[in-house]
Amino acid sequence: MAEHFFAIGFRGIAAAWVARRVALMEKGGVWAADRDIVTGMGLPSSRDLLYPDRPAAQGERSDAEILDDIRHLAPHLVRPVRLVTLGALRKKFFGLWLTRDVEKYGKTVNLTEHQAGRPLCEIARRAALRVQMERVHFVDAPRLTVALARDFTAREGTLAREGSISASYTLTDDQQDRGETFRPRVQTVLKRTYREDFAYSLPCPDNVSVLVLPLDQDTLLLEREVGDLSVEEAFGQLEHTFEMHFDLELKQEHVIWANVIDDPADFSCIQHLRQDDSVLARLGDIFAQHGVGDAHEKAGLADGRIEENYGVFANQIAANYSHIDAAYIRALVARHGPLTPDVLGPTHRESDLGEDFGGGLRAREAKWMLEQEFARTAEDIAWRRGRFALHGADVDRLQRWMDRGAPLG
After folding, report:
1. How far, in Å, CA of 81 to CA of 69, rounded?
2. Could you tell me the fold of the domain covering 78-137+185-261?
3. Is the pTM of this model over 0.90?
4. 3-class SS at 199?
5. Quick check: 7 pLDDT over 60?
6. In degrees rounded to 5, what are phi and psi of residue 286?
């Protein structure tokens, strides 16, 4: 065990990222997580997006650099998508619809000719004739937090979740987010209404944008800032804007989840990784006192990493378990990457996966989370699946299974 300890307080991806870099300095460290290591309930958010084509803010790391780091560590936890940004629809004379200009990133496309226009209604396509389309990447931040936490403990770091900690430095939640970048948001998760793999930034009447983001083959995230509206009004404008652009009347059966994010702690938050170097700079004097050297930033995860193309890797794993539903195996790979064979263990038939708790969660994966991913409660397990948590799971049944000793048979 290392001689010197550095407590990385609180929870979430920023703490996990810094904790890992401390451990890479071969000083172990103590990560004092005063709640679960996965921030909030692990819901996806617009703040889990990286924009590699955009320049970095002054004093921050660029998203392109962060994306390279995450791809190096865990390519299965990054999902590329093309973001189409529409200007505000404004009705003009003679019934014409025009749009307001938007910031220009990526390339310009014609929605009446490009496949990105297919999901949109004809009015939106013609009004926003030429729009901006850029590459963005959605990071499954809860899963990345778990992967970094496992790496931290594998490098002799200590995850201390109860009791007092005596440490040289504590990264507290107020240092992670001083409220300067946080704005309350409303979210709705829908059953996916289109198959094309595009995300959209749509303008609301109050000039606040709605993000429409495909999370997977079955779910769609809608999100906007509350702004100057009430929460109810923000939800109303979010739904109205989506309906207007997609010519679809939202009904209760479309909605999977609705959520209000009004606590900075409930963001995962990729924004903190942009400030990673400044956090380490604040630790610099303390490190120097103890003779701690630089971190090996490019070191892979202790669990191993995917060396080949991710798609090829996922197909190989699915082929190796041809006796199991391929969609289930690919979902496991999207959560666990190179550890998928370890999660599956001696699985020779469908029944070896154990009890089915719904939403794609089986007992074998749940047991892995209890034994290897620091989960302690049924809700820990259910929400630790990141974006897949939105598929639902029977938490009460899961808890009863845990109370029986988490059997696989």
Report:
1. 18
2. D-Amino Acid Oxidase; Chain A, domain 2 (3.30.9)
3. no
4. strand
5. no
6. -65, -45
